[in-house]
Specification:
With about 300 residues, the protein is mainly alpha-helical. Helices cover about 55% and strands about 5% of the residues. The protein is elongated and about 120 Å long.
Length: about 300
């Protein structure tokens, strides 16, 4: 009988185990309950986020800083827009970008001489790389950018941060006053001619007003030529037919406009695709070709 009521703990080691378990089991239980509760709370923010997305306003005001404004282009931007055409491939003797050996003699002549050549033209290179819209500081930054990548340590003029502009995002499907106004005005003008005149003049006025936006949407070939094509075609560099030279353009025009467009868009011989300016659209490239062909006929 004494053995039936005796404790199962026979040694001090067993007693120690029992005491430890008596502490650990409640602690583990509390920890599991806490983790369960906090885990449920972590899921709550996603539900709140969904609700906020559903009730957020349809229009937002965004403050944006304009980039590439006139006079504010960095040297890298000017290089990509203008200088890259010749300096990336080293066309017509232009020192190739990043080629330290090619830039060594330019750097040795000094920053002042290099800038003077870039501003006023030198050995086939047109003034300001063929883009007269560039400011002197923008040209200076481009010269420093290329020279420093060729081993120089020149300092470029600082870029003044342009003023921030605010734009508002309009709700989808909403008609803006600027879009709605011309449509209604045209309708009125079509229905009733100007007082004191016959119906025909009134219709002519409406037709002219409607044709103006269409003409405005066509790319400016002259602008494309001055900004990109002039770099080589202005001086006939690297075998490019010189602008206005009828004899040089005649055999090319004979091939047809589709062939000229294809060469301008995809490159031919030393001419890179799109004249080295990938930012140009196909329509702009074709407009530039049209402008040069018209001047050679």
């Amino acid at each position: 009988m004494a053995e039936e009521h005796s404790s199962f703990i026979k040694s001090w080691q067993q007693l120690l185990v029992v005491v430890v378990l008596a502490f650990l089991i409640p602690i583990i239980g509390i920890a599991l309950i806490t983790q369960l509760v906090t885990g449920q709370r972590q899921e709550q923010p996603s539900e709140d986020t969904g609700a906020l997305n559903r009730i957020k306003p349809v229009g937002e005001v965004v403050i944006a800083q304009g980039g590439g404004a006139t006079g504010q282009r960095t040297g890298e931007q000017v290089f990509g827009e203008v200088c890259k055409t010749c300096h990336e491939a080293g066309l017509a003797g232009a020192p190739k970008f990043g080629d330290k050996a090619a830039w060594a003699h330019v750097i040795a002549e000094g920053e002042k001489v290099a800038l003077d050549h870039a501003l006023h033209g030198f050995k086939g290179m047109p003034a300001k790389g063929g883009n007269p819209d560039l400011t002197d500081d923008e040209v200076h930054r481009a010269v420093v950018y290329m020279a420093n990548n060729g081993g120089a340590n020149w300092k470029a003029p600082a870029v003044t941060a342009p003023a921030a502009t605010a734009t508002a995002a309009a709700p989808a499907g909403a008609a803006t006053p600027a879009t709605a106004a011309p449509a209604s005005t045209s309708a009125v003008a079509t229905a009733a001619p100007n007082p004191g005149t016959s119906g025909a003049p009134g219709a002519t006025t409406v037709a002219s007003a409607a044709a103006a936006p269409a003409a405005a949407g066509k790319p400016d070939g002259k602008k494309v030529f001055e900004g990109t094509c002039m770099v080589c075609h202005g001086q006939g560099i690297a075998g490019a037919p010189k602008f206005g030279d009828k004899a040089a353009w005649a055999p090319r025009i004979k091939q047809g406009m589709d062939a000229l467009y294809n060469s301008a868009l995809h490159g031919k011989n030393a001419m890179p695709p799109k004249g080295g300016n990938p930012a140009l659209s196909d329509a702009e490239v074709k407009a530039g070709v049209d402008y040069m062909v018209a001047a050679a006929k």
